[in-house]
Specification:
With 468 residues, the protein is of the alpha+beta class. The protein is built from 22 helices and 13 strands. The protein has a 7-stranded mixed β-sheet with strand order 3-4-5-2-1-8-9. The protein has a two-stranded antiparallel ribbon with strand order 6-7.
Length: 468
């Protein structure tokens, strides 16, 4: 059984068991929306009149109780890892005092539960048995009209949880929905307030936007509505910076960025998509004009630092942050791949993130000139390795240098780097050759004294005044 089939079966079983225990239970929220759109739900939520305690007593599954104070329990599939169902008790929220979460909840009914959700298309219930839709908020009509509408007063919904400002853009882009005018007006007016949400939750929304095929549309909407300025401030400076790329002769830097996002491969990782979004973020800060020509000297390094700063701001994992910053820093490094020394090319092609870097190079080239020679050459090199292994084991270690009579010190790193470069260039191929090369090149040996040093070191001549 596939994961999708197992998830569906488990969601049906949860509802069945709760009903057998005497409770109301329905599928709720996004899974209902996806079924009506003909999509396969990624996961299932259940709404019930059973309290969290009653849920846990009625279901023979392992329960995760972190959300119990808000009436939410998660249960895990007994045999399939990673499959869970979230079960929420029908409830109404008390006041939202921080723009992130309610101060408390009171248990209620389906009619009272539906209006507490964010958008009408996410506010429907479904009976799993007959697939009957229970709709108290007009979600089905809005879905048919391809409209994203906040439930009730839009500004009130956004004040309750300001992450909904980003979620509105993600849902609109993902499902090709038009944002209803009153909802859009409130979104634009409150966009700057999204920063009260935790960085981790903002990063998660960006992650979901960027790995979806409609990522460019989502980010363009986020830019137009003021959300990019709030969560990714340096990126907003790319709007209006003229580029004049052959593929977009009238476009600006933001247009180029959106095209790069669109041209990424089918299912890009978050790190690749985020790096594509930020790959030219350094250009507005390095722009200069000389003799009528515009240049962006060092924009890759400046962009890499800004990408690192944004990764820290969003509290990405170290691995993600470092990978994104590395991709931005080196997003043009292989543009002259055929002219690079063998050692430099091999070092870069041996990097763990090379597949993502080449994908970014390809998308950037397609969005700029359409010339893919450098990418094709690197991919050929990786496939055929015409000059030997890309990443052969190092010939020497620090212990080898000590055994060879060199004194340990800071110079060891330089010596080993130079040996590695010679190895990758094909000038040396064995440990013996490496040690001979060190001796021949006098790497790590004391330098010959200069003529001035020889004179200074000479003993004084008789009759000289040594005190002068």
């Amino acid at each position: 059984m596939s994961d999708a089939a197992a998830s569906l079966s488990f969601a049906e079983e949860v509802v069945s068991r709760l009903r057998q225990a005497g409770f109301q239970a329905f599928w709720a929220g996004g899974c209902v929306r996806d079924i009506l759109l003909g999509l396969e739900p990624a996961d299932y939520d259940v709404a019930t009149n059973a309290t969290p305690e009653q849920v846990m007593l009625s279901l023979p599954y392992r329960s995760l109780t972190m959300g119990v104070s808000f009436g939410v329990v998660r249960v895990r599939h007994p045999r399939r890892q990673g499959i869970e169902v979230e079960i929420a008790t029908f409830r109404s929220d008390l006041a939202y005092i921080d723009g992130r979460r309610p101060s408390g909840v009171v248990y209620s009914s389906p009619e009272m539960h539906a209006p507490r959700r964010d958008f009408t298309v996410n506010g429907m219930f479904m009976d799993p048995v007959g697939r009957e839709v229970i709709d108290f908020v007009g979600g089905r009509a809005d879905l048919d009209a391809k409209l994203l509408r906040a439930i009730g007063e839009p500004s009130a919904r956004f004040r309750e949880d300001k992450l909904r400002l980003l979620r509105a853009v993600r849902f609109a882009a993902r499902f090709d929905l038009r944002i209803e005018p009153a909802t859009l007006s409130a979104l634009k007016a409150m966009a700057a307030e999204v920063v009260v949400v935790s960085p981790e939750r903002i990063a998660q929304e960006l992650r979901r936007m960027l790995v979806h095929r409609n990522r460019a549309l989502a980010m363009d909407m986020a830019m137009d509505y003021g959300l990019v300025a709030a969560v990714l401030p340096p990126l907003s400076a790319t709007k209006g910076v003229f580029q004049g790329k052959p593929m977009q002769p009238e476009g600006d830097l933001w247009d180029h960025t959106l095209l790069v996002l669109d041209l990424l491969p089918g299912n890009p990782s978050f790190t690749l998509a985020f790096a594509a979004l930020l790959h030219d973020v350094g250009k507005p800060f390095t722009r200069s004009i000389h003799h009528g020509r515009t240049s962006y000297h060092n924009h890759e390094q400046v962009g890499g630092r800004k990408a690192d700063d944004l990764g820290r701001r969003l509290k990405l994992s170290n691995a993600e942050r470092e990978r994104v910053a590395w991709l931005v820093t080196y997003h043009q490094y292989l543009g002259e791949a055929k002219k690079l020394r063998e050692a430099k090319l091999k070092r870069m092609l041996a990097e763990p993130g090379i597949d993502e870097l080449l994908a970014l190079h390809r998308a950037d080239a397609l969005a700029s000139t359409g010339d893919l020679q450098h990418v094709d050459y690197c991919e050929y090199y990786l496939r055929c390795q015409p000059s030997g292994p890309i990443n052969p084991p190092p010939l020497l270690s620090g212990h080898d240098l000590v055994r060879h009579g060199l004194k340990p010190g800071a110079s060891f790193s330089t010596i080993l780097d130079q040996v590695r470069e010679a190895q990758l260039d094909g000038r040396i191929n064995s440990k013996a050759e490496a040690l001979e090369w060190i001796d021949r090149e006098r790497i790590g040996a004391p330098s010959e004294p200069t003529a001035a040093e020889v004179v200074d070191a000479a003993p004084p001549v008789a009759g000289d005044d040594v005190s002068a």
